[in-house]
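Review session, final week

We close the course with one last complete record, chosen because it touches almost every idea we covered. It is DNA polymerase/3'-5' exonuclease PolX, a protein from Sphingobacterium micropteri with 559 residues. Go through it on your own first, then we will talk.
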Amino acid sequence: MENKAIAKTFKLYSQLMELFNENPFRTKAMASASFKIDKLPFPAASATIDQLSTQPGIGKSTAERIMLILETGSFPELDNLIAQTPEGVLAMLTIKGLGPKKIRSIWKDLEIESIGELLYACNENRLMEAKGFGLKTQEEIRKSIEFSNANQGLFLYAGIEKIAATFLGSLVSRFPDQQHAFTGDFRRKCEIIASIDILTTTPIQEVVTFIKDTPAYAIEEQLEATVHLSDELGVRYDIQSTTEERFALDLLRTTGNDTHIKELQAIQANLPNLASEEAIYEALGLSYIEPELREGAGEINWAKNGQLPELITYADLKGTLHNHSTYSDGVHSLEQMAMYCRDELGLSYFGICDHSKTAVYASGLSIALLQEQWMEIERLNNKLAPFRIFSGIESDILSDGSLDYPDDILARFDFVVASIHSNLRMDEEKATQRLVTAIENPYTTILGHPTGRLLLSRPGYPIDYKKVIDACAANQVVIEINANPLRLDLDWRWQRYALEKGVLLSINPDAHRMEGLKDMQYGVYVARKGGLSPERCLNAFSLAEIEQYFEQKKRERPA
């Protein structure tokens, strides 16, 4: 083992000592030992305890620990601290600009135990609630986490959408007489992307020359008709060249996943080479299948039988539900959020759903604050009419499945989004029952982010999807498609089952700032993958329709 690796072990020990607020003098001594070991003039692995203990800054006890590291890779004091530290908290120590003291505050004060939860907290402006954090620090941490994720080679679709458009735009500008299109996972709007795939009729050598003229990109591999490159952020691009005559066929062939293409080839082994994708599908006896649906999940049968849904678009949305304000952990005020919704997005209604009182980590609303918010909603509705603000709440689903607040308070909301935010370590049976109990509560209108997942960061708690969806169908509870790019939950793979059961879905941005309202676009993308049509989406209802819907739900509540 090299000295540097031993030094890193001591550095980790000193960091954990600081994290657990141990004796500051001993903590500094271990940090100093780490530095001294790294600068030893000889390999520690070839030295004796006596040789090591005579070095400046390295005493006998440190030398003994070095020997233990060489033998076992660790030592008991370090193992003890590691055993007390959640894996995600250990991972935070790798984030640039985030030291043990700040991590202790994040872990103990905000109860955040993973990098994914930390990124989500940064996006929700929640980190500023902890001691020692400001807006600048929060932004630096967010950027550091995103950079770290980029180095893993996987990206959220939302995180690379703009840079992909910029690259394609530059390709179009350089070769305006050629055809260019996104393809692969990116064209299907998959939520997680490994590479940006592009099909072009530009000869590959001309593409290579263009890339060499652009310092921001580096060529990794060049083949006969393909070039693989990456940019400064570590994003991978796969560019494939084809001919004008084969462009439509190759676009179809590279867009669909393997199952989709195999099912097409089962109809006709050699897919016809025609002028457009529409013509190819028609020749196969199929209606045109939108790219987002080409996942081999039943869309071929839909196309055969004329049952393809009219997929929802962003323009179909009439309002937005499940949003936050400065009453809880939002960045912008209730009025700012509503005005942005009306004036910038052209929507007809806005649903406010600040956190409930149990969510102390998110400044959940006391009953007194609720009263204040209700009064402001009434004032703003008079001011902004005919635009309407609906009074909602994101009520925490407690450990036993009950909702936060007593029934007489829940009865006063226009609608209630029920979500799990705490005690996430559950087995499938417990998580499912907890959700079903909340769904059966007569005050629940919408089930929020059903699995609690954070993409690329934290898997959702395991649930029996069919039981949860069946319960929503039986109790006429809407299921949220949380449009935050980190969530996109309900997963599109289960949206189809929900629609088959007659469940309404709602594309909710879970916005904590005005710009977050635009995240509904990403919810639309995954909703299209799930086969959602406008008439089955709650916030595609007109203002009059959703007013009637909420009033009907209120009448169905207990007297």
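Two points worth writing down before the exam:
The longest strand covers residues 388-396.
The first helix runs from residue 3 to 19.
Good luck, everyone.
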